[in-house]
Write a structure and sequence with these properties.
Elements: H1 10-18, H2 25-36, E1 42-46, E2 54-59, E3 64-69, H3 88-111, E4 115-120, H4 125-140
Parallel strand pairs: 3-4
Antiparallel strand pairs: 1-2, 2-3
Amino acid sequence: MAAAPPASSPAVRRRMRAQRTRDTGPEMELRRRLHAMGLRYRVQRRVLREVRRHHDLVFGPARLVVEVMGCYWHGCPRCFRGGPKSNSDWWHEKIQRNRARDLDSRRRLEAAGWEVVWVWEHEDMDAAAERVARLARERRR
């Protein structure tokens, strides 16, 4: 993996350094809704021993993993439109690596008997919470 290129400006550098990797706005919004529905889950939990990846929400007994996907960082098919103008080659490769890792995680989890739900940040969080709650309850039975 190539080293990240320098930021195009001090403002961009500050913005990128402040970017959260966990407890993002959409993630916290979904967590609040699920908690209010009476559901309990683990946060930033590693599921498969052989893979060093942590998942946003894990419903252990239901064998359900929920990933809250940032549209930009994970290359949302609806929202992502090519990325920035500065360092565009590097960003294109970065987003492609993220997408490949997401698909690899999903494939590995499903092969191990886990259900994986991707919730995109642009989604209505009430509807997403209902979808996750329904799956978690169904899979616990």
